[in-house]
Amino acid sequence: MRKQMISTLATLALLTGGIAGFAGMGGSSSVEAAQAVNTFKDVPASHWASSAIHSAVEQGYFKGYADGTFKPGSPVTKAEMASILARVANQPELKDAEPNHFTDVPEWAKSDVSTAIAKGFIHPSSYKGKLNAQAALERGEMADWLTQGLSVVDSDYRQALSDVTNTVIPAKEYFTGKLVDSQKNAVAVALGTGLMSVANDKTFGVNRTTTRAEVAVLIARYASVAKTKPADLQGLNELRQVGLTGTNLSVISKSFKKTPERKILLSGNQKYEDVVTDDFSLVRNKNIVTETNHADLKILNWIVVDTHVPSNNRSIYYPVFVDEGVKLQIGRQFSFVEFALNIKSESMNQLQAGSLLNSATFNPLKSPQSIAFLSYEAPKTGDYTLNKGVFGVKNPVYWGQGLLHFNQSLTRALTLETKEGKVYSVFDTN
Predict the structure, then answer these.
(1) Helix 139-153 / helix 155-163 crossing angle, nearest 10 deg
(2) Residue 269 CB: number of other CB atoms within 10 A?
(3) How far apart are CA 301 and CA 304, in angstroms?
(4) DSSP at 167
(5) φ, ψ (nearest 5 deg) of residue 7
(6) Which residues contact 377 (CB under 8 A, 6 or more apart)?
(7) Separation between Cα atoms, residue 302 and residue 400, nearest integer Å
């Protein structure tokens, strides 16, 4: 009995020492909270999350510890995070929320977990009866919880979670194949909304634990994103468009439209209205008609990056492919294409790969060589080539680098034709 009382007291100490009491249950006033955060011995003004910690304490999400510390680097458990999410203001509740059937939630957190479920953050059906409530919350699961919450706030966020299924995710784990399918959608939306970001090593870190300082920041970000319409978030728009069509062109440039009939030359009995399209999804992952016969070629994704826009309007893919400070000439943008080849000969080299498409935009000759691109470890030609640039595998998949001209006087129609007869063709109308 004594051991049980000590255990219960320890749990309550953790809760009230790490998470503020709820309204009506002895939570600190905002004045006391503001005074407390300014005296945390381990949160100097220079701490990267000091402002967010101040706000989280002031709003009652956290308290400090009796020894005058905040312990910003301490992990947050799932039960603790559920208690925090239960208190998120203005979060709608589901009319048909799943019941809380978890068998391992401590008594002090049961009501909070039920509330977090009702608010859509936690889906019990995704678990097998146990939340593992006392375990530290990892970033992958955090992404799940937060994006699930957003889908309750606005149905378009729920649609976004579906739209990004086949997108290119700007995180190292995606490019190295270490991001499992069950994690991709939530990670994509978490990055696209700015809720979460990659670390200095370019990894999202789905298995890294979430700290108290990080949670303070995430709560503030969540409140901001929840007030924002998904359509107003460029990064999310890009991820959705790439997921749905294979390219972000329509987000980066509004000037490219379907090539008019008078500006395109079709072969044989092709009829413009039957074969010409500006929908990239219709040529994505299809065998493309090539200039030479060295290999069959498919385009999986096409990313456009404008280096002349202000930093706050940059493509979400800028830091993946382009080094900070690099700028092309006015009227030119980077074009990055993910190619999949089926090589027909034993000695095809990079130059022959470059001859497959006579296009400066869709150019399979070489991969980006920026420090940024190399740090993300995305597939490149060098991963597959041997001496004299000869490919050592039959089916390489890699990213190529080209240029897109945003200048009608310099630009021909951008045209790709599939072996099935569909013609993708767009033209700069500026």
Answers:
(1) 130
(2) 6
(3) 10
(4) P
(5) -60, -45
(6) 172, 175, 176
(7) 10
Burial class (CB in 10 A: 0-12, 13-18, 19+), 155: exposed
CA atoms within 13 A on the CB side of 15: 23
Residues 6+ apart with CB under 8 A from 88: 119, 149, 219, 222, 223
Round to whole Å and give the CA distance between 325 and 307: 9
- Are the CB atoms for 176 and 374 separated by under 8 Å? no
- 3-class secondary-structure state, position 61: coil
How many whole angstroms separate alpha carbon 31 and alpha carbon 20? 14
Q: Residue 301 pairs with which residues in a beta bridge?
A: 338
What stretches in the chain show pLDDT beneath 50? Answer: 1-35
pLDDT over 90, % of the chain: 81
Q: Identify the H or E element spanning 175.
A: helix 172-175
Residue 45: CB atoms within 10 A of its CB come to 8
Q: What is the pLDDT of residue 177?
A: 97
Interior CA angle at 162 toward 171 and 236, to 5°?
Answer: 50
Question: What would the pLDDT profile of 39-49 be if each residue is shown by its tens digit?
Answer: 799 999 999 99
Residues contacting 169, CB < 8 A, separation 6+: 179, 184, 187, 188, 191, 239
AA letter at 192: G
What confidence score (pLDDT) does residue 408 get?
A: 54
Cβ atoms of 174 and 113 closer than 8 Å: no
pLDDT tens string 240-264:
999 999 999 999 988 899 999 998 9
